[in-house]
């Protein structure tokens, strides 16, 4: 039982990242009809927003500390972060320690701006082009963004720790009334799962309960009719592209303590996220989220040693096998609209 619970937790952890990226992909496809292969790069940029803010907060200069001396008795020079001089040492240490959560405030405007510029500057010219053209141009954009990150940050992963309060592990077994230390799980992975649920709930609430969201949903169903009512649906869709970029960016920000950011992390998640979208149903937001969590759990169970002994390498292909089965038996996906991909 403890092994099953542990694999479910691991699956929810992976599924959270899949669901958030797939949610943004589905928002873009559902509103603009664009297959955006640069979406994984947005996840990567979000992660490097956290790296950037962490570096800014730890920028320092050297000062002479008269209270400390070297072996010759000379005063030592120490590095003092500039943030200490701006807000004080206590507040400065707090901001450095909580750099990853604080990066959310930094990443939201940055990602929305990048999303809007991307949509207005490039993708809008491909709305009426075949999906193959959209895939090629956005995949090329993803490679360009990836190489830019590689140029400025290097090719090696950059460790970005979680706040000290969340660096330990939670005794899940004792919490469930089982034997103590039977199920130990990192605090930050639980935080990431809760954060994913919060973002998913926020996006669904925004689309369902706000006037802006209702208009967007109407535009997704019948763009021409909404335009005839005098509503500038294109402007609203541009904003939705920015929101989708922010969702991917925030997923990347909070994932940095789990997986140290590197320039190719976006590509690592991109293909899997498209598989999630296909399994959930093209254009179905609920399907993308559901498929993300389900496939994350399935991949986690496929990674168990007992399963790998019986079927070596199954954890590498299980998601793709599920996608093949779904496409053969239900081409529109688990929750896709009838007729989508069923020609």
UniProtKB/TrEMBL annotation:
Q: Which residues cross the membrane?
A: 16-35, 42-64, 98-123, 190-216, 237-258, 270-298, 310-328
Tell me the keywords, alphabetical order: Amino-acid transport, Cell membrane, Membrane, Transmembrane, Transmembrane helix, Transport
Give the way it sits in the membrane.
Multi-pass membrane protein
On whether Isomerase is a keyword of this UniProt record, the answer is no
Q: What is its main location?
A: membrane
Q: Name one Pfam family in it.
A: BPD_transp_2
InterPro entries in alphabetical order = ABC1_TM_sf, ABC_transp_permease, BCAA_transport_permease
The answer, when asked if rRNA processing is one of the entry's keywords, is no
Query: Where does the record say this protein resides?
Result: Cell membrane
Provide the family line.
Belongs to the binding-protein-dependent transport system permease family. LivHM subfamily.
Q: What's the protein here called?
A: Branched-chain amino acid ABC transporter permease
Q: Which organism is it from?
A: Roseovarius aquimarinus
């Amino acid at each position: 039982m403890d092994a099953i619970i542990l694999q479910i937790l691991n699956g929810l952890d992976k599924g959270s990242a899949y669901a958030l990226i797939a949610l943004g992909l589905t928002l873009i496809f559902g509103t603009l009809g664009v297959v955006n292969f640069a979406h994984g790069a947005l996840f990567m940029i979000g992660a490097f927003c956290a790296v950037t803010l962490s570096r800014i907060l730890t920028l320092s200069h050297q000062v002479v500390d008269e209270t400390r001396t070297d072996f010759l008795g000379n005063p030592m020079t120490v590095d003092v972060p500039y943030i200490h001089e701006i807000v004080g040492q206590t507040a400065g240490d707090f901001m450095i320690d909580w750099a990853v959560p604080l990066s959310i405030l930094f990443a939201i405007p940055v990602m929305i701006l990048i999303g809007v510029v991307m949509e207005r500057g490039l993708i809008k010219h491909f709305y009426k082009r075949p999906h193959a053209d959209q895939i090629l141009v956005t995949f090329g954009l993803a490679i360009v963004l990836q190489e830019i990150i590689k140029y400025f940050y290097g090719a090696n992963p950059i460790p970005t720790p979680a706040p000290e309060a969340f660096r330990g592990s939670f005794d899940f077994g004792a919490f469930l009334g089982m034997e103590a230390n039977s199920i130990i799980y990192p605090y930050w992975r639980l935080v990431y799962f809760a954060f994913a649920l919060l973002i998913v709930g926020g996006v669904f609430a925004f689309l369902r309960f706000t006037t802006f969201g209702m208009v967007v949903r109407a535009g997704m169903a019948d763009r021409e009719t909404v335009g005839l009512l005098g509503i500038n649906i294109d402007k609203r869709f541009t904003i939705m592209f920015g929101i989708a970029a922010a969702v991917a960016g925030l997923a990347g920000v909070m994932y940095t303590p789990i997986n140290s950011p590197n320039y190719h992390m976006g590509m690592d998640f991109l293909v899997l996220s498209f598989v999630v979208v296909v399994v959930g149903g093209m254009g179905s937001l609920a399907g993308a989220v559901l498929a993300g969590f389900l496939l994350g759990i399935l991949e986690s169970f496929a990674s168990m040693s007992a399963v790998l002994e019986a079927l070596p390498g199954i954890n590498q292909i299980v998601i793709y096998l599920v996608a093949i089965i779904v496409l053969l038996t239900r081409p529109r996906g688990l929750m896709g609209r009838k007729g989508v991909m069923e020609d």
